[in-house]
Amino acid sequence: MKEIAIVYVLYGSREAAERAATAMVEGRYAACANVQSPCLSLYRWKGEAERSEETPVIFKTSLARQGALMAEIAAAHDYELPAISSWTAATTDDYAEWVEAETAAA
User: Fold this and answer.
1) Where do the domains of the chain lie?
2) What CATH number was assigned to the domain covering residues 2-102?
3) How many CA atoms does the CB half-sphere of 15 hold within 13 Å?
4) How many other C-beta atoms lie within 10 A of the C-beta of residue 88?
């Protein structure tokens, strides 16, 4: 077993989520991006209770590209304070090697 990085991000629309997913895979920051179904987010923002529909994206990247992916997402995101979370995940050697190859700098 080897480890990869999972990066979870919320977007305000499916279009924004798909644009980000495409850009991160094409830029080799992520090997794969899964654009999820919209979800209901409940949170407090600037002292007010908020409720909004957001589209989650799960990015898979190498441990070496985790920081670069998160920085690139943050720089391109249209939220004032984007929710970008990351953790490591154990996976098969073959899948981890594919992720590493797909995120290697060109």
Assistant:
1) 2-102
2) 3.30.70.120
3) 1
4) 11
Tell the residue number behind the tokens 């929710």, with chain if given: 83
Tens-digit pLDDT profile for residues 7-49: 999 999 999 999 999 999 999 999 999 999 999 999 999 999 9
Cα(91)–Cα(10) distance, integer angstroms: 24
Q: What is the 3-state secondary structure (H, E, C) of the chain?
A: CEEEEEEEEEECCHHHHHHHHHHHHHCCCCCEEEECCCEEEEEEECCEEEEEEEEEEEEEECHHHHHHHHHHHHHHCCCCCCCEEEEEEEECHHHHHHHHHHCCCC
